[in-house]
Input
Amino acid sequence: MKIIPAVDIMDGECVQLVGGKPETKKSYGNPVAMAERWVSKGAEILHVVDLDAALGRGDNTEIVLDIAHSVDVPIHFGGGIRSMEKAEFLLNSDIERVILGTLAVRDYFNEFEILKELNQNFRERVIAAVDSKDGKVVVKGWQEKTELKAGGFMKKAGGLVWGFLYTDVNAEGRMEGINVESIKRVLSSAEKPLIVSGGISSEKDMGVLDNIGVWGIVLGKALYEGHIKLK
Output
C-alpha cells in the first residue's frame, strides 16, 4: 500500500481544512518546502490539490508546477481541472496523473466524451475523484451534492481511468477515524486501483486499509499534526 502525503494549497500556502470548509483553514507554510520535506522523509508520490481552483476563488498552478519541478517523485494533482485543455496542459507539464472530480462527473452525463479522449492520448494517467458525502457524490470543491452514487459512477468510468480517489467528506480532517464499511463498498465497485482519503488518523486505520486491499492512502492532517510519522 502506498503512503501519499497531501499538499493542499490555498492562498499560496500549504493548508489543511476540516470537511473542505475554507473557514477551518490551518496553514503549514510554504507548499514547495513542505513537498520537499515529505519527499526527504521517504514519500514516493505526492497528492497535490489546488483548493482555490476547486472552490472557484483563485489559481495556484504556478506553485503546483514549482512543486513538480522541485521533487523527483510522481505528482497526483487535482483541484479545479474543469476542462480538457487544462488537463492536457498539466499532463504535458511534468504532472504524472491528474485527478478529475467535477469534470469527470459532468462527463458521466455526456457518455464520457472527455475521459475517452484523455484515455486515448494519456493512457493510465487520469484518476477519477469520487468525493462522497452522506452516500452521494459531491462536486465543485465538495460544495454541491449530486444524486449520483459512488459505486454506479465507478463501474461506468472504470475502463477509462487509471484508478479512483475516494474521499469520505464526512470524515475529512476530523481526525476521528475511517468508515470501513463505506470504503469496502466502494472497493467492491473499483476494478482499478483505489486510493482512499479522509479520516485516516492512526496506524490502526492504515493497517485496516492495507488489509482490505486499497492501493494507496492520502494522509493530511494526521501527518501535519504528528499523529502519524511518515518515516
Notes: The chain has one domain: 2-224.
